[in-house]
Amino acid sequence: MATVSMRALTKRFGEAAAVDALELEIGDGEFVALLGPSGCGKTTTLRLLAGFLQPDGGELCVNGEVISSAELVVPPERRNMSMIFQSYAVWPHMTVAQNVAYGLKFKKLSRQKKSMLN
To answer: Residue 100: exposed, middle, or buried by beta-carbon count in 10 A (0-12, 13-18, 19+)?
Structure first.
């Protein structure tokens, strides 16, 4: 597992700031969801994290190591991460909790944690 830090992470498209000085710390084992209206920067943030975009400012670190900045980008294939778009990963016949729990079923979880998902 890893810790992820976004420090003043910024991505602009022309004059528009898609991500503007984002500060986010994700601890080891934490589950995080990005929620917001269309156009607020969710996908841009995930593309920055995956290495598909280079930030215009700030930095993105994994376990304290800078993997993206305006000067440096570790390529996606060297990040040991993946990105799945919602339209391919969400089952419309399931609730939000069932969709989240489905992926977690493949991880080795204690009975106590499994019972919390049901």
So the answer is: middle
Give me the architecture of the 1-78 domain, per CATH: 3-Layer(aba) Sandwich (3.40)
CA distance 93 to 57: 40
Please tell me the distance from the alpha carbon of residue 20 to that of residue 18, in angstroms, as a whole number. 6
Q: Which residues contact 90 (CB under 8 A, 6 or more apart)?
A: 99
Above 90 in pLDDT, residue 6?
yes
Q: In the chain, helix, strand, coil percent, each to 5?
A: 25, 30, 45
Band (pLDDT 50/70/90 cuts) for residue 95 is confident
pLDDT digits (tens, 9 = 90+) for 97-108: 887 787 777 766
**Domain boundaries defined on the chain:** 1-78, 84-118
Cα 20 to Cα 7: distance, rounded to the nearest angstrom: 11
Query: pTM above the 0.85 mark?
Result: no
